[in-house]
Amino acid sequence: MDLKNQAVEDDDNMLNRIRSKADENFCFGWAQRTIEEQIVGEVRCNKRRGIQMMEWLLKLGDKVMLRQYEDTKIFLHFSRFELLDIARKTCFQDAPHQCPELKHENNI
Question: Residue 36, Cα to own-chain centre: how many angstroms?
Answer without folding.
Answer: 14
